[in-house]
Amino acid sequence: MIRVALKNLAGRKLRAALTAIAIVLGVAMVSGTYILTDTIKAGFDTIFTVSYQNTSAVITNKTAFTIGNSNNTGTFGFPATVLGEVQALPDVAAAVGSLENQTTHLVGRDGKTIGNTGAPNLGFSHDPTGDKRFNPLTLVAGSWPIGPHQVAIDKATAEKKGYRVGDTIGVQVRGPVEQFEISGIAELAAVSSIGGATLAIFDLPTAQRLFDKQGKLDLIRVAAKPGVSQTQLVSEIRPILPSTAQVTTAAQQAKKDAKDTNSFLGFLQNFLLAFGGIALFVGAFVIANTLSITIAQRTREFATLRTLGASRRQVLGSVFLEALVIGTCASIAGLFLGLGLAKGLNQLFVSFGIDLPKAGTVFETRTIVVSLAIGIIVTMIASLRPAFRATSVPPIAAVREGSVLPPHRWARYTPVMALVLSVLGILLLLYGLFVHHIATSQRLLALGAGVLVLFVGVALIAPKVVRPLARVLGWPGARTGGAPGKLARENTQRDPQRTASTAAALMIGLALVTFVAVLGAGLRSSFESAVNQLFHADYALTSQNNFTPLATPAADALRKVPGVTVVSGVRAGDGRAFGKTIQVTGVEPTMPQVIRVKWVQGSAAAASALGTDGAFVDKSYAKKHHLVLGSPLRLQTPTGKYLDLKLKAVFDPPKGGSPFGQVTISAKRFDSVYPQPANLFAFLNVKGGVTPANTARLEAALKSFPDAKIATESQFKKNQEQGIDALLNLLYVLLGLSIIVSLFGIVNTLVLTVFERTRELGMMRAVGMTRRQVRRMIRYESVITALIGAALGIPLGILLAVLVTHAVSAIAIAIPVVTIVVFVIAAIIVGLLAAILPARRAARLNVLEALQYE
């Protein structure tokens, strides 16, 4: 039987190859994900390790609590005098202090910032007289900067923008852009790429001035004398540190630095693996359907084997062996295809502005084991039902012409199982969406399981609706396509189970892209509605990438423009209240003139007069913590200082959100306790409103702040929605893999049905059907099948999106009709593409040979 199974595979190479493609693509996604994320992780780990090379202990800034990634808090540094005290300790061999900044923008010759796509724009200080053992950077040209007008930049920027030593380049940090001479070009030689980040290196006094940290440091690297352990050195340093500094061993600091990165990479890995899982799930439908068709076509073959003495177990083993060989070969191919896909995924992320550091390609044993295991297991599971069906072939079928497989004994329970699974899937979704106080992992598990179970349930129901759907969807072709159109509609109705299984693969992909489209439309609609309600200004001031906070001098520059009547910034930072870290915002007294807020307690006048102890919150935060007007509210800042506040107003935010954090205080109070305050947004009014002349004057005032941009209300909406659009496009591209898998599923089915209907096609040709009509018939069949997948998938995707939007109150329900029409057209195109090969094969059949085919 082993020899029989292998000969069957060798004799049906095309069928085996088309079946394997589904697994190849899914496994490639899994393999590519692991390779890409492992490579990026290795790059970050190398950066963190090299950053503390030859270092025993690291002194860093200390915050009162763990802060977020607002780039707006926790950057206050500690006194530079600490360095001298550390160097004086008996067990210290050397120590070097430095400053760091993540918003140091290099400005090109065109006056625009370089690399402003979300990657950090890093600024560092360098002490040319300090111990060189601590420096992770290597000069490739020139020298380290000395003096207030020199800077060293990274090699990637120099090569990309054509800069050399001695050229002039702009730098903007907190104030207006300044021009610096490039003294040197450096690189982090330990990694192959630092991604989209840029580097700007200054001497210490220049960095202190630019970063607004005169007399301060962010970091001190310390080397111990021989024989002194890292733990011993840390214990010696700790007593002399001020409350704003802390010390750890170099290994502990590298691990701490990597924590946030590893968390992000873990999310990225799970995010991409989910799409690999979707592709494999779709691939399982393709494999099950392909094997079911081939087993039905091989009824007489299996019956002959049974007649010759093969047992049911041997027939079962033969089918399993075929599936095992296909799954193993496909998994191996997918594993190595993942190497190329990893580069493709990296380029995809780069195109969306996500360019991360990388070391050499990492191909771990775990990647090999998981990729092969998951591919083989999915293939074997998908082959279970077809394999057991093969064992039900009676020996008498060997002598019957046109014998078909008998229905499985459990077939009559299929409708009940479909209904049970569909209901179970919806219940799991409702549990994951609406049940509160459950762990995030439990919630995600319920949602994922619910979606998968619902898909299986709908796929089982699908055969019952294929005939009416094919009748309706095939009507245009039957009406206008003549005999080929009518025959195509009848062919899709002939075997509802086969048509439904083929359409189910496409159904899954279309359901998911529809879900994403409806959810994206809801997000966009909610945001635009919120802006319409809140935006009461002529212009908005934001950073170029729309989300990085802007230092306050940019807004101050606009106050000097003739005709500007109001400039009101919204500060942003981290705080802690009621035991949780929250976002804190600071507003100026003029805020009600540019932002229209619906107050449920207090008024705009109260929000304008917050003073040093006033605060306002949104309605849900007030309800959660039982706050009313006059309630005391204690807020802790990252520096450890406590603010005793009183609630002066409560507002009702629109569904799409607001620019305010959980707690909002006055900008004056914010600036007094948050070092280096920055605006998340600033809004302004100008005499005469929005006019080309006013826009030109405002843009001219911001020429010295290339990281800032001015926008009208409509431009503000468009700019802020860029993030939503980028995410949606990324999801569409990744979900496209499942669509490609389903396309091969349709190709597979059509190719197999062409073999199955060889005599039928021969007879049609014999009675006058032309090659062109044969091709049209196959194309019509393919399109009808694809449209059935769309008819099942699109409503299912809308249902999932409606459930999610009901659970997430901040998102409105919006159906993107145009996008859905595009998806329907895309389904037709998928059907046409899938039909190319089968239609050509059908049309090229030799009539005489086809009539003799068995």
Structural class per helix/strand content? alpha+beta
Molecular shape: globular
**How many E-type strands?**
25
Which percent range describes the beta-strand content?
15-25%
Protein model, in words:
It contains 27 helices and 25 strands. With 854 residues, the protein is an alpha+beta fold. The strands form four sheets. Strands 15, 16, 17, 18, 19, 20, 21, 22, 23, 24 and 25 form an eleven-stranded mixed beta sheet that branches. Strand 9 and strand 10 form a beta hairpin. Helix 13 (440-473) packs across helix 15 (482-494), helix 16 runs antiparallel to helix 23 and helix 23 (713-756) runs parallel beside helix 26 (817-843). The model has no long low-confidence stretch (mean pLDDT 87).
Tell me the layout of helices and strands.
Elements: H1 2-11, H2 13-51, E1 57-61, E2 78-79, H3 81-87, E3 92-98, E4 100-101, E5 105-107, E6 121-126, E7 138-142, E8 150-154, H4 155-161, E9 168-172, E10 178-187, E11 198-203, H5 204-210, E12 216-217, E13 219-224, H6 230-237, E14 245-249, H7 250-297, H8 299-307, H9 312-351, H10 365-382, H11 384-390, H12 414-434, H13 440-473, H14 475-480, H15 482-494, H16 496-534, E15 539-543, E16 550-551, H17 553-559, E17 564-577, E18 580-587, H18 591-594, E19 599-601, H19 604-608, E20 614-618, H20 619-624, E21 632-636, E22 642-651, E23 663-666, H21 667-673, E24 678-686, H22 692-701, E25 708-711, H23 713-756, H24 758-766, H25 771-807, H26 817-843, H27 847-852
Parallel strand pairs: 6-11, 8-10, 18-23, 20-22
Antiparallel strand pairs: 1-13, 1-14, 2-12, 3-13, 4-6, 5-9, 7-10, 8-11, 9-10, 15-24, 15-25, 16-24, 17-18, 17-24, 19-22, 20-23, 21-22
